[in-house]
Amino acid sequence: MKAVMAIGVKSLLMLIPTILALCLLIRYFPGTGLGRIVAIPEIIFFNSLIAGFGTVLIGKYAARRRGLAMAAYFLVLLLTLAFTLAWYPQEIGPPVTVQLWRLLFE
């Protein structure tokens, strides 16, 4: 039971960047229309699945190697953030990823 609680807490902690990213996306990219009603629960659901499976797999295979576990947690966080950016809808203008790319690199 204690191990299950630890996995649950770690999975919830891994969702904090997703929630923060969604808050920023809602604030700075408001042109989503009704797509946001469907997209935000989907994003949270799939990111919680990714975080949960990642936490279980990291605990099972990388728990003994601290550096490998930290790198795996970092990769799972990057994957959830990339998923959040890719699935966030945008009705007006180009997708969010294209807008961010143009803002940062052009």
Automatic annotation (TrEMBL):
Recorded superkingdom: Bacteria
UniProt entry tagged with the keyword Membrane: yes
This protein's UniProt keywords: Membrane, Transmembrane, Transmembrane helix
Membrane-crossing segments per the record: 12-30, 36-58, 70-88
Record protein name field: Uncharacterized protein
UniProt source species: Paenibacillus athensensis
